[in-house]
C-alpha cells in the first residue's frame, strides 16, 4: 500500500505542491522535477522503530519510504552496504575517511536502491510494464529487480555502453534497445515510447520515486555513525539524481529529529562531463531555483555512468551543493583511472570509473586545502569495477609471464 505518510509532490523548481493524482512525472506548471513530500511530523512519532531495528537493508527505514509494507518489494537484498574506514587514506589526508561500498548490491551498483523503490511503486500503481533509459547501471539494476518479480522490462541504452552492463541487461531478460546515439538520445527515445504505450518510466530525474530509494544511503551512513552525520559526503555526479537523493535523505533525518545537522555535499565530475560543475561556477552566491539554467556540455568522459550532456536532475544537484554549503570538484579522466587502482589496491574495493570519481575528488579537494584536518568524510563508491573491465585494464598493469619452472618465479620474488 502507498504510505499514508506521503502527502504528495513538491516541484524542485517552482515550489508548487501537488497531490499524487495531480502529477505523475514532472511539474504540471513548469516541468520541473518533483520531490515526494511526507508528513514528517507524524513520522517523528514512529522513528524509534527505526532506531530499535537491527535490520540491514533499505526497508529498515520503511516509515520514510513511499509504501507502508513490504508486500510488493523485490525479494533481493538491497542496501545495508558496508561503510569502510580507511586507516591509510585517513592518515595520508589527515581526515577520517570512509568508503560507502555500494558495489555490494544485487546488480553491483548503487542504482539498486532506486530501482527497488521505483519498481515497488510501479507495482503499487498496478503497472504491468516498466522502462528505463540508462548509461548502463540504472538499466541493468532495473532489469535485475524486474527479473526477481517477473515484471516486463524495456531498457534503452547507448549502443556504446560497456559490454558487461549490456550482458547483465540481456541475461536478466529485459527487452534491450541499443540506441545508435548518446545517453541523452536514449533518454528522449525512452520517454516518447513509454508515453505512447503507457509504460511506467523509471528514467532518472523524470521519475520522482527513484530519489526515494537513493536517499536510503544517507539513512545508512547516519545510522552507522550512531545517528550523527559526517562533515562531508563526496558524490560522483552525472544526471544528479544520486546527489539529490543524498541531500533529501539527510534533510529528512533532520526533519524527523533523528539527526541534528546536514553534512556538506560535494559534487565530483569528470572535466569531460562537467555540467553541474560549470553551472555552480556560474551561479555563485544566492540565487532562486527558478533562475538557474543548467549548462549543456558535450560529454566524452571514460566514466560512462557519469557521461551526460544535460543532467536530468541538474537543478536538484546544484541545490544539493549550494544549500548544504558544499562545493563541486572537477577531475581529469587520468585522475579517475588512477583512483580505480588506488582504491582497489589499498582497500580491496574494486570500483568502475564513475565509482572511483569520489576518491579522485577528495584527493583534489585535500590538495587544494578545502577540507579542514580531522573532518569526517564519506565517499560514495557507486558501481563495481567488474562492470567496465576495459577501463580497468587501462590502469591495471600486466601480469608477469613465467615458465612452469619454479626457479624463475622464485628468482623474481627474491629480487622483490
Ligand atoms: C556507478 C555510478 N556512479 C554515479 C552515477 C551518477 O548518478 P547520477 O546520474 O544520478 O548523478 C551513476 C549513474 O548512472 C552510476 O551508475
Ligand atoms: Zn514547477
Radius of gyration: 21 Å
Which geometry do the CA atoms define?
globular
Number of contiguous helices: 16
Helical residue percent band: 25-40%
Largest sheet: 6 strands, mixed
Report how far apart the termini are. 62 Å
Which strand-content bin applies to the residues?
Answer: 15-25%
**What is the level-2 CATH architecture name of the domain at 83-105 and 210-395?**
3-Layer(aba) Sandwich
In round numbers, the mean pLDDT is 97
List the uncertain runs: none
Strand order of the largest sheet: 4-5-13-10-11-12
Report the CATH topology name of the domain at 83-105 and 210-395. Answer: Rossmann fold
Bound molecules: pyridoxal-5'-phosphate, zinc ion
Count all strands and give the number: 13
Structural class: alpha/beta
CATH class of the domain at 83-105 and 210-395: Alpha Beta
**Helix and strand sequence:** EEEHHEHEHEHEHEHEHHEHEHHEHHEHH
Summarize the topology:
Blueprint: E1 6-11, E2 17-18, E3 34-38, H1 40-44, H2 47-52, E4 83-85, H3 87-93, E5 96-101, H4 111-124, E6 129-133, H5 137-149, E7 152-158, H6 163-171, E8 175-179, H7 183-197, E9 200-201, H8 210-214, H9 216-224, E10 232-236, H10 241-255, E11 264-270, H11 275-282, H12 314-322, E12 328-331, H13 333-347, H14 353-367, E13 376-381, H15 389-396, H16 406-415
Parallel strand pairs: 5-13, 6-7, 6-9, 7-8, 10-11, 10-13, 11-12
Antiparallel strand pairs: 1-2, 1-3, 4-5
Bound molecules: pyridoxal-5'-phosphate and zinc ion (ZN).
Pyridoxal-5'-phosphate binds at residues 109, 111, 135, 137-138, 204, 236-243, 305-306, 352, 354-355, 382-383.
